[in-house]
Amino acid sequence: MDIVNQILEREQKKAEKYRSITVEKHLDLEFDLPTERVEEAIVVRLPAPTTVLPRAKPVPKPKPLTKWQEFAKAKGIDKKKKDKLKWDEQLQKWVPLFGFKKAAAEKEKNWLIEVPQNLDPMTDMYEKKAGEKSEKVAKNELQRLKNIARAKKVKIPRVGLPTTSDKASASQLATAATIAKASTASLGKFQDKLPKEKEARGKGIHELIPGKERKRRPAEI
Known about the structure:
By secondary structure, this protein is mainly α. The chain has six helices and four strands. A two-stranded antiparallel sheet has the order 1-2. The protein has a two-stranded antiparallel sheet with strand order 3-4. β1 and β2 form a beta hairpin.
């Protein structure tokens, strides 16, 4: 029983010690709060109440900056909010900057496109404009994917010849020429060959050529 009493007495002293420390800290915080006089009394202005809610998942981390955002931050460029409409002098009306209404306005405005003198007179300018737009969309999508890969620290696979300071070797040039010829609509069937030209051969080249059958790996049981 003496041991039990000693333990209880020790725990009681510890609780009283923690209680006194808590009260002292609470009073110190109260004295640090701003005070004001109301009528003939001095009162303490309490902070606004806050309620901390438990989270099932950790707080999301801020998204890393893209290349353009880092450049704008370094140069002090502020992003200005663009207007949704723009006055078109030719159509004499307000045209949206994006969406199907903008495409309809462009079609209405460019109902006739002049063929430049340096192009073939039979060139379809509407098809050329559509191709340029598709290339621009693809370029923007590629840049968006690069930003995502850079933010997630994912290594982007290398495409084409390796970038070296020295000249490319004969095997590298042959590989690039073989892949380029097979990248046409006919998979290189109607492409002319140079005298004494040979197709590139080697490990991994067969899988890079479009239209070639891939070797199937044996099924593992």
